[in-house]
Amino acid sequence: MSSFRLSGGLSLRRFSVVEGAFLLMLALMTSRVLGVVRQVIFNALFGAGADANAYYAAARLPDTLYNLIAGGALIHAFIPVFLAYEKEKGETEAWRLTSLVFNLVLVLMSAVLLLGEFVAPAFVNHILVPGYTPAERDLTTTLTRIMLFQPLILGLGTVITAILNSRRQFLLPAVSLAVYNVGLIGGLIVAKLVPGVGIYGPTYGTLVAVVLQLVVQLPGLFKQNVRYSFVWNFRHPGLRQVLVLLLPNALAISVAYVGNIVDTYFVSYLPDSASLAALHNAEMLQALPAALIGQAIGQSLLPHLAVQAAGRHYIRMRQMALKVIGFSIALTLPAALLLVLLGKPTIHLLFEHGAFDPHASDLTNLALLGYAFALPGLAAGNLLSGGFFALKDAWTPFATNTYALVVRWGMLYFLFQFIHGTQAIMVVPLALAIAAGSEAVLMAILLLFRLRRYIKRDAGMQRLERRRRYQKELKQSSVQVSSNYE
What we know:
Layout: H1 17-46, H2 50-58, H3 60-69, H4 71-89, H5 91-128, H6 134-147, H7 149-166, H8 171-193, H9 200-215, H10 218-222, H11 237-267, H12 275-310, H13 314-351, H14 358-390, H15 395-415, H16 427-453, H17 459-485
C-alpha cells in the first residue's frame, strides 16, 4: 500500500481511513489467530464440560457491565466531543475534558465492581444459568467475582484508546488487541503445568490480559503531551455532551450484551450439556470476519465521519459512508459462504483434540452454520451505527438495538417451538441472524433519510447558494445601472 508510509514515527502517525482499517485488520487478524491458539489449548484442557461452561457463563456479567459504562460506547461518545473541543477551545480545555472523563470512568467502574460482587450470586442463580446444577452455579459465581475486576481495568484503557483514535493513531490500540490473548494463553499454560489450578488459570489470565492491553498503549499516550488533572465538575459543558451521547450509546451496546445473557438463560435449559461451549467456539470463528469487516473499518471510519459532520460536509459524509459501507457489506457474503463450506473441517482440524470430542465438534458446526447467516447483518449494523455517532445521535442506535433485542427474544421463543433435539442449538444463532439483518436494513433507511435532510445545511451547498445569490444580485445591479445609463 503506497500510502502506508513508515516515516515520521508510527506511534505519532495520523492514519487515513484505508491505512487505519488496514492496520486494525492486521492487528485483529493477529489477535484472532492468537485467539484460535488460545481456544485450541483451552478446548484440549477443558473440552465442553462443566468447567468450560462455567467459564463462558462467568464472562457475561463483566462484559455487560463494562459495555454499559465504557466499551465502544465511550469511544463513540468521546471522539466527536473531544475533536470539537480541540478545534473550538484549544488543547488545554480538551485535556481538561479528558481528565474529567477519566475520573468519572474510574469512580463509576469502581462502584460497579463493588455492586457486581454483591449481586453476583443472585444474578447467576436466578437469571444467568438457572438450569445448571448447584455445583455448576457455585463455580460460575466464583469465576464471575474474579472476572469483575476486568471492567475496571478495561474502562480506563478505553479512555486511552479513545484519545489515540481521536488523533487517528491506530497503531498501539491495534497492538493492544493482539497482546490481549497473550495473557490468556499464559493463564492456560499455568493451568497445564501447575496441578490443581484448573479453570482458575485462564480466569486470572483474563486480568493479566487486560492489564497488558492498557500498558501497551501508555507510550502513545505520553507522546501526545497529555495533561492530566484531578478535576471533578459535573457541570462542565463538554462532560455533559459526552454523557448525553454516552447514555443512549451505552444502552444501545449493552442491549446486545443483554441479548447474550438471554441466550445463556435459554441454553442452560438445553438437554445437551455441551451447548454453551459449542456456541462460544462457533461465535469465536464467526467473530473473525465480523471484526475484520465491521470493527476494523468502522473504528477507522468514525473519526473521519466525525470531522466531516463537525464541518457540516454532509454530502461528502454520505458519499464516504455509502462507499465504505457498501464495499464492506459486499465482503461479508463470501465470508459467510466460507464459514458454511469450511466450518466443519476447520473445527475438526483446530479443536477436536484432548477433551474436545467429536460430539462437541459436530455441535459447534451446527451453531456455526447459524452464525454464518448473522454475519452480513452484524457487520452492516456496526458500520451504520458509526454514521449516527458522528452526527452525535446515539438515541437512534439505541432504539434500533432495542428493536433487535425484542425481535431476537421473540424469535428464540418462536423457533424453539419447531426445532428440537440436537438441532435446537441452531435456534440461538438463527434468532440473532434475523434480528441483526432486520436492524441493519432499518438503520440504513434512517441514516440515508437523515443525511438527505441535511443536504441543505451542508457547508459546501451553503457557500454555493451564497455565490449564486451574489452573482444574481451582481447581474441585477448591472442591469439596473445599464437601464439608468440609457
